[in-house]
UniProtKB/TrEMBL annotation, chain A:
It is a multi-pass membrane protein. GO terms for cellular component: plasma membrane. InterPro entries: ABC_transp_permease, ABC_UrtB_bac, BCAA_transport_permease. Belongs to the binding-protein-dependent transport system permease family. LivHM subfamily. CDD domains: TM_PBP1_LivH_like. It is found in: Cell membrane. GO terms for biological process: amino acid transport. It holds the Pfam family BPD_transp_2. It comes from Nonomuraea aridisoli. One of its GO terms (molecular function) is transmembrane transporter activity. The chain crosses the membrane at residues 12-35, 47-74, 86-104, 130-150, 182-204, 216-241, 253-270. This is Urea ABC transporter permease subunit UrtB. The keyword Transport applies.
UniProtKB/TrEMBL annotation, chain B:
InterPro entries: AAA+_ATPase, ABC_transporter-like_ATP-bd, ABC_transptr_urea_ATP-bd_UrtE, BCAA_Transport_ATP-bd_LivF, P-loop_NTPase. It comes from the Bacteria. Belongs to the ABC transporter superfamily. Keywords: Amino-acid transport, ATP-binding, Nucleotide-binding, Transport. One of its GO terms (biological process) is L-amino acid transport. One of its GO terms (molecular function) is ATP hydrolysis activity. Residues 2-229 form the ABC transporter domain. It comes from Nonomuraea terrae. This is Urea ABC transporter ATP-binding subunit UrtE. NCBIfam families: urea_trans_UrtE (TIGR03410).
Length: 282, 229
């Protein structure tokens, strides 16, 4: 029973990391139809930012900025020329992802590095270690911030409008290009924050992003495109399923179980947990 | 106010418009008519910049807008209501209006003015736009175009698929806007509505303008033939 309960914070914190990663993806994928394979490398960039700074408090905003600016550069220089061509963007961003991984190898070396956890995050209450609690708190803060941004600010409203009906947004006076840029910045920045969180539970390596990018896409598809609550619920579900499947079997079988579960779920609900609904003439 | 000259456009290799020209003078209501698939919606989408023009020009209020993006045309105060009573379904009715008024950089009072023309929307302001009926969504769509304080309205079949009582309200609203001096470019399928509203009409067939005239001419036999299915 204790072993079973011990698995809970692990599952929840993996879910929390997935949540931060998927928050950005669900909007870039949902809003712009861009399958950004380089999103994982923004996680990696955030983690290395933490490694360079060796200070958790400073690392969070710094990683947000570093990853965000990387996302902005990628969107402006490459992705925006490929809107409406999902397969081309997939190849393009996959290539960028490989380049970035090699860049990290050249800069920081191929072996993994460790970011020592700050003293105030060692220890814990009961079965909840402080570092896992911190990650969950980070995800909650991220979700709340994104929710406030979307519902309480003019820019966020414009983002929602573009997600829900891009063409109507453009003919209502919204500069969709600027909204895309901003969404890419915020989404990539959140991936950077997720990278900082990951330094608390494991080593940092050039391929860090590749372990999470596929799971993050599963979260986005299962949650429904561009749906905040979908991403939150699916991330928690997948995080818990992942850690308990690992607990009952082993790491590789767990991946199979998770993938099979998502496929089965999508058979029943191909549109994901939540979906845009409206009466529209057909 | 709006002048379209030799406009050509289409979807990829499929050309739809072959050199369409038309003119909407100040305060004029011009009705674009024609059977399904002759290019009416394509024409409006190209006028608004949703589709790029492959040839020809669109001039609005003396300025060449042919290469401008849709949002830039809205900020020059071209108001567009696209086909199919579209909305932002997960935003509230008020949210739909707010996001537009902010994007068009207009004061919030513009919302009140628009609601005066569509008072039926007032009790619905907090509802999700996606839950409204088609007719209510169409009224919202027109209100959304009005909060940008347009100097011209471009309407794509505002009465399509909508219950008769609300068609009357929408027709009355268009009539009032027209009477107040707002120029309108209207695509309309119903001949009787076109007859009541239009100053002049343009009939499209196969991507060409095949007939233009004053509203009275719509009664003529050869004109009716062009519209008959």
């Amino acid at each position: 029973m204790t072993a079973f309960l011990n698995q809970l914070p692990i599952g929840l914190s993996i879910g929390a990391v997935l949540m931060l990663i998927a928050l950005g993806l669900t909007f870039t994928f949902g809003q712009m139809g861009v399958i950004n394979m380089a999103h994982g490398e923004f996680i990696m960039a955030g983690a290395y930012t933490a490694f360079l700074l060796q200070d958790m408090v400073l690392a969070l905003p710094a990683a947000f900025l570093v990853a965000g600016v990387m996302g902005l550069i990628l969107e402006r220089s490459a992705i925006r020329h490929f809107y409406g061509r999902p397969l081309d963007t997939l190849l393009l961003t996959w290539g960028v992802s490989l380049v970035l991984q090699q860049l990290a190898r050249d800069l920081f070396g191929a072996p993994n590095v460790q970011v020592p956890a700050p003293a105030w995050l060692s220890g814990g209450v009961g079965i909840l270690p402080y570092n896992r609690l911190f990650i969950m708190g980070l995800a909650v803060a991220g979700v709340v911030a994104v929710w406030l941004y979307l519902t309480r600010t003019g820019l966020g409203r414009r983002t929602q409008a573009v997600v829900q009906n891009r063409q109507l947004a453009a003919t209502s006076g919204i500069d969709t290009g600027r909204v895309d840029m901003l969404t890419f910045f915020i989404g990539s920045g959140l991936a950077g924050v997720a990278g900082v969180a990951l330094t608390l539970i494991g080593p940092v390596g050039p391929a860090l992003g590749t372990y999470y990018i596929v799971d993050a896409f599963l979260v986005v598809v299962a949650g429904g495109l561009g749906q905040l609550r979908g991403a939150v619920l699916a991330a928690l579900g997948l995080g818990l399923l992942n850690s308990y499947a690992e607990f009952w079997s082993d790491a590789s079988l767990a991946k199979v179980i998770v993938l099979a579960a998502v496929i089965a779920f999508l058979q029943v609900r191909p549109q994901g947990l939540f979906v845009l609904r409206s009466r529209v003439l057909t | 106010m709006l002048s379209v000259n030799g406009l050509e456009s289409g979807y990829g290799r499929a050309r739809v418009l072959f050199g369409v020209s038309l003119e909407v003078g100040p305060g004029q209501l011009v009705c674009v008519m024609g059977r399904n698939g002759v290019g009416k919606t394509t024409l409006l989408n190209t006028v608004m910049g949703v589709l790029p023009a492959t040839a020809g020009t669109v001039t609005f209020d003396g300025a060449d807008v042919t290469r401008l993006k849709p949002h830039e045309r809205v900020r020059l105060s071209m108001g567009y209501v696209p086909q199919g009573h579209q909305c932002f379904p997960q935003l509230s009715v008020l949210g739909n209006l707010l996001v537009t008024v902010e994007a068009a950089k207009q004061p919030k009072e513009a919302i009140d003015e628009a609601l005066d023309l569509f008072p039926a929307l007032r009790p619905l302001l907090k509802r999700s736009a996606g839950h409204l009926s088609g007719g209510q969504q169409q009224q919202l769509a027109m209100a959304r175009a009005l909060v940008t304080r347009p100097r011209m309205l471009i309407l794509d079949e505002p009465t399509e698929g909508i219950q008769p009582s609300i068609i009357l309200e929408i027709e009355a609203a268009i009539e009032r806007l027209h009477a107040a001096g707002l120029p309108v470019l209207l695509v309309e399928q119903y001949l009787d509505i076109a007859l009541r509203l239009a100053d002049t009409f343009v009939i499209l067939d196969g991507g060409h303008v095949v007939r233009t005239g004053a509203a009275e001419d719509l009664h003529q036999e050869d004109v009716r033939k062009l519209l008959a299915v």
